[in-house]
Fold this sequence. Notes:
By secondary structure, the protein is α+β, with helices and mostly antiparallel strands. Helices cover 49% and strands 24% of the residues. The protein has helices spanning 3-85, 90-107, 141-149, 189-202, 229-232, 235-247, 280-304, 309-328, 353-359, 372-378, 381-390, 393-399, 444-457, 468-480, 495-502, 504-521, 546-561, 590-604; strands at 111-119, 122-125, 154-155, 159-161, 166-174, 181-187, 206-211, 216-219, 250-256, 259-268, 272-279, 333-340, 345-350, 364-366, 405-411, 417-427, 433-442, 485-492, 527-532, 535-541, 575-582, 611-614. Helix 1 (3-85) runs antiparallel to helix 4 and helix 15 runs antiparallel to helix 16 (504-521). The protein is flat.
Amino acid sequence: MNKKEKTSAKNRKNQHFLLLFSIGVIIMSFVTIAVFYTLYQVSKNNLISMWNNNAIEISKNVEFYLSAPGDAVLFTANKIEEMQKKGISNEEINKYLVEETAVYSTLIPSNSTGVYAYCNGEYLDGSGWVPPADYNPLERPWYIAAKEADGEIAFVKPFLNLQTNTMMMSVSLLLEDKESVVSMDIFLDSIQNLEEKMAADNDVDAAMVIDKSGVVVSHSNPDEVGINYLTDGNETQKELTNTIFSIEKGIFTINSRYGRDLVFCDHINNEWYSVLILNERDVFGSIRYIYILSSVVLIIVFLIFFGIFYIFYHKQKEVDELHEDIDAIADIYTSMDLLDFRSNRARSLRSSLINDHFIGNNKDSKIRNADETLVSMLAAESSRNMLLQFMDIDSVKKRLTSMDSISHEYLDNDNKWNRMENIVVAREADGTPAKIITSIQCIDADKRQQESFKKMAETDSLTHILNRGGGETRIYEYMEAGRNGMFLLLDADNFKYINDTYGHDKGDEIIIILADCLTTTFRDTDVVYRLGGDEFAVFALGVESQDTAKLVLSRLFTSINHIHLNEISDWKLHISVGAMLYNSKESLNYSTVYKKIDAAMYESKKHPGNYYTLL
């Protein structure tokens, strides 16, 4: 081959190399752009998900804030209905409203006017406010809204208090007679503070709550509060409000004077909407520039180091796979494994001593069924049998055939609550699971908090024994389990004299003393609870004969007789008791039993001193 031919061959080789190089650059450029665009989309979706969670959290906080006055109105309404059924006068009902107003003023800081009501054709106010002569409660929004709600809690349209420049709202409930209404007014400044804090801490454009009429209930910009966006807002605000009303819950974008805005909205109590507004440029601008700059730099680096492209590509692929694995593991999990039933292999995604026992120290080995040794490491003795059954591989596969996930809660050896969860990752054609993730999460704090909230909800604030709701829940459980016993209903004789003569503080002291007497007289397995005022109820478990019942009642009266009130010389604590033996075979419901012992208690009141009527 002569020189010309060699030169021609070399040129062809160079041209071939340049062609391959150009093709490689183009392919790499497209691949790099595609990879970074995918990462950008993943990051963008993660940001959207994070902000959506923030919006949902705000909604839940607002709902929790509104639950307190709603519960207060419901509790007060139930008590007034009882008083109406007993024929108690409006004067006594108004006294009760005054007492409840004093209680709620400490429990609900946002309570502004206390509890008021329209009862038996008369307006009653727990805060002592005397309405003007032309005041007609039947024409007030709180009464009209309660009538329209027809027995459901009504959150009346908020209104702007011009003196304080804060939004207020009435919470009302129609009673069973379809005429009486109980209501409470609350300030909404806590919700306003929540929106302002969200905007200040997270640099969002706006955070607000808007009602169905378009009125802004709260806004991160206080100047917007009270404006009706549908009638008084600008074009952007009107478009925003109409879009919110049309989708009610979700995520959408809207044009504004600063570009495109990302809007998160959620429904609250079927009346309000929680809204979070962010500018897309502010939210996604930084990551967009980062990914664009990174892709450009990578392409430049590729042009310089073309020879190491192959290695870089595979390393990047490994990083992507590792990134997906890391994203799949939440920080809340103490242990996580991937079980591949196709290959019968298990891989640890989050290492722990449990993983080492379950799949071996190699972090990738054959799937092994749970045994007593493993379960003893995981759970306290009382939870081991159930956990062992839950972890059985064959049982797991069978249950996950028709379900996407299953979970089981158990106590560990430190007496802490944990949740084991199995989640299907992939399935075979017949629906059986091919891959699952099994994880362990410590839920002790949430579990304990739930139990604490439940206990608070079931405890009487004055006596610290069960309240009516808590007591009746226990009794329903006993009745459903077919347990027999004796029902008692009792109250103090001439108790009104104490409140009128010595004051309500002394009356509360006697109620506490009576509650302590009941808890010491009856057993821990018995249900002792306060119905309200000086009225208490007891379910004495296992008392099934008249003789035993009389012994228990005699013991109760002995305890009552031993109570001495040093500061009161002209009154002694006596009680009237209505009692009934309950047999589960008679199929009596709680309401029927309550009516019988209530009538028996009032029969006992015809007799002086401690007296019981046993049915």
